Q: What sequence folds into this?
C-alpha cells in the first residue's frame, strides 16, 4: 500500500519590503537634551547610569536624562512622544 506525502519548501518566500532611510542625524548636541532610554533589559539601567556619568564628565554642555521603560516589550507612547518633542537625540540601551 503506497501513501502520499506532501513536502513543503522550508525556504518559504519573504514578502516584498520597502526600504526606509535612517532618521536624520543631529548636527550637534551642545545645548540640547540627550535622552538615555533604559528599555528594561537586565543591566540596561546600569549601563545608562554609567553612560550618563561619562557624558557629564566629558561633555558637560550636553544635558542628559535617563528614562526607564517598564518592559522592553511594552512601549509607552507618551514617553516616546516626550522624547520626540523635548529631545535632540536618544540612546536606547539593551543591557548586557
A:
Amino acid at each position: 500500500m503506497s501513501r502520499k506525502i506532501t513536502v513543503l519548501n522550508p525556504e518559504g518566500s519573504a514578502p516584498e519590503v520597502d526600504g526606509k532611510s535612517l532618521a536624520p542625524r543631529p548636527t550637534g548636541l551642545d545645548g540640547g537634551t540627550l535622552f538615555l532610554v533604559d528599555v528594561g533589559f537586565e543591566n540596561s539601567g546600569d549601563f545608562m547610569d554609567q553612560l550618563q556619568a561619562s557624558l557629564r564628565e566629558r561633555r558637560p554642555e550636553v544635558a542628559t536624562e535617563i528614562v526607564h521603560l517598564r518592559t522592553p516589550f511594552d512601549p509607552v507612547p507618551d514617553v516616546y512622544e516626550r522624547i520626540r518633542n523635548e529631545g535632540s537625540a536618544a540612546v536606547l540601551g539593551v543591557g548586557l
Remarks:
- Residues 39-93 form one domain.
